[in-house]
Amino acid sequence: MALLEIRTYGDPVLRKKCEPITEITPELRQLAKDMLETMYEAPGCGLAAPQIGKNIRLVVIDTAIPGEEEPRPYIMFNPEWEAEPDAKVVPYDEGCLSVPDIFCNVMRPDKVCVRFFDINGEPQELHDCDGLFGRCIQHETDHLNGDLFVDKISTADRTMNQSKLRKMAKDTQAKLKKR
Ligand code: ZN
Asked: Given CA atoms 21, 122, 42, 81 in this order, what sign does their dihedral have?
């Protein structure tokens, strides 16, 4: 197990569209476990591969409440979601490990179906994913397309967080230059 470095806002790796995974190798299984460990340590409830610098379609999610509920880790290779027919578009306060200290409402469907391949390469399909879990699926899948939640916030929220975001991007770029 290893903790991975979480990339932050302003890092170009977060803006690239990720490649589908064609074979679930032992290395990818290990990477997925390391991503889960990194996510728990952060702490967060979801992490997508670009956030640790890999442009591949892999996300990990666990929305169980730490210390109160048994862990419910999900490893999803090539996840794809769609809104359930009876879903409503609702606001929900989102944050992101790559965009620390910013929390804003994002409008998204409140219930989705997700299809993915699990760690054994078995196809899975989960219906009626709602609440934080349904949110996380959508937020993490966005990362695989180079999208961040701050792209989807209201103009007012963007204006309010503009200087914070600008500073974050500047700090990230300075850090990347030092490598
Ligand atoms: Zn995120």
From this structure: positive
